[in-house]
Amino acid sequence: MANFAKPSVPRFSVDVYQNEYLPEGGREVNAIVTVTATGGGTLGGGLSPAAPDGRPSAAVAIMVDCSGSMEYPPTKMRNARDATAAAVDTLRDGTHFAVIAGTHVATEVYPGDGGLAVASPTTRHRAKQALRRLASGGGTAIGTWLRLADRLLSSADVALRHGILLTDGRNEHESPEDLRAALDACAGRFTCDARGVGTDWEVKEVTGIASALLGTADIVADPAGLAADFRQMMETAMGKEVADVALRVWTPVGTTLRYVKQVAPAVEDLTARRTEAGPRAGDYPTGSWGDESRDYHLCVEVPPAGLGREMLAARVSLVVPQPDGSAQNLGAQGLVRAVWTDDMTASTAISPQVAHYTGQAELAQVIKQGLDLRKMGDFDGATAKLGRAVQLASASGNADTAKLLSKVVDVVDAATGTVRLKTRVAQADEMTLETRSTKTVRVKK
């Protein structure tokens, strides 16, 4: 495994897209905030062995479902071993790592001494040898896997901590409350990508894990695709350079921040995750960053003002909160403004960016509603919701989602959302649409 030259820390920038003009008496201000990080790990070829402060760069825990169902078909367990080996091969030298076998209990497979190994040609070889011990048998209690991953990851003094979790079944050997408690305990301590293999797992469980731990979720319907997916996940993890980045939003007296949502590359409501950060300011977690760009939708309610008045509705910056309560400012800032005018043309115009992402958020919502109604047997309701989804996907140019929808409905007229439910739908197609329903297409600015 090659060593890579140390890349620089990403530079962050913030751009605000909005129509700042309000009619007389207008109170709602909407803005799309684009955050971009450039010059970090991904463009430089991957994570370096040391972070900017001299600490080792990262620790990764790979959690592999080894419950009894992983034996059906027998190739599934072999594919999981091959995928884990591919992920181990993708680790950069100097990265701390561990492999966990998950059943109704969690077991350290490698290194197995209660700590983490440090990636090198020798430890990667030993880890792949240890994967032979991955064997199916037992139940599924994902909360125990996450808690063990947290203990192992926290044993290393590193800049970034990340998990990769694979499951093929439902979390049947612990209560939903136990899983929720584990997620609450791990939130903010490490990020985690979650994958469901096959079609016997619960979409809401896998997507809920990824959402709580600020990672990605996806389906790998064919186990033969696991190795490529694990390799890609690990390459992305190796490209992260800054952990625990928060979107800090300050609003003046008299305003109410109604919501903060990530809207690209996927829809994620961050409103309830606010941490107070001083007078009139709050931090919203965004996880780890490499070279990438994400979009956020802010909605602010401002006090009404007279025509010609102008006010700062919100100030957005990027920070890394510190254990002592302080915060490292990443040097990027954006301003959201409100201007009251009697120019009807100006005040009634909708920002193209706001309109686009409002539609993308609705698209994710109506897909979930439509699939839920279909499962409940309300086919008229499902047709209406999924028809609206087809209309929104077509209008916004979200070709990937449109293609997934076409596996569930026959499209008569995309522009009007006229569809017919298919009488027979492959379970993998339905689960893929549900799992990927929050993925959005970027607006052309």
Give a quick set of tags describing it.
445 residues, alpha+beta, six-stranded mixed sheet, 12 helices, 20 strands, globular
Sequence-ordered SSE layout with sheet pairings:
Elements: E1 11-18, E2 21-22, E3 28-38, H1 41-44, E4 58-65, H2 75-90, E5 96-102, E6 106-110, E7 117-118, H3 121-130, H4 142-154, E8 160-167, H5 176-186, E9 191-197, H6 203-212, E10 217-220, H7 226-238, E11 242-250, E12 256-264, E13 268-269, E14 275-276, E15 281-289, E16 292-301, E17 310-321, E18 327-340, H8 344-348, H9 352-375, H10 379-396, H11 399-405, E19 409-413, E20 418-421, H12 427-435
Parallel strand pairs: 2-18, 4-5, 4-8, 8-9, 9-10
Antiparallel strand pairs: 1-3, 3-16, 5-6, 5-7, 11-15, 11-17, 12-13, 12-16, 14-15, 17-18, 19-20
Helix pairs in contact: 2-7, 4-5, 9-10, 10-11
The coarse overall form would be globular
Query: Oligomeric state of the chains?
Result: single chain
Mean pLDDT, to the nearest integer, reads: 93
Number of strands: 20
Q: Pairing-aware structural class of the strands and helices? A: alpha+beta
- Helical content stands at 25-40%
Radius of gyration: 23 Å
Percentage of β-strand residues: 25-35%
Low-confidence stretches: 1-7, 42-56
For the terminal residues, how far apart are their CA atoms?
Answer: 40 Å
Main sheet, how many strands, which sense, barrel?
A: 7 strands, mixed
Counted by DSSP, the helix tally is: 12
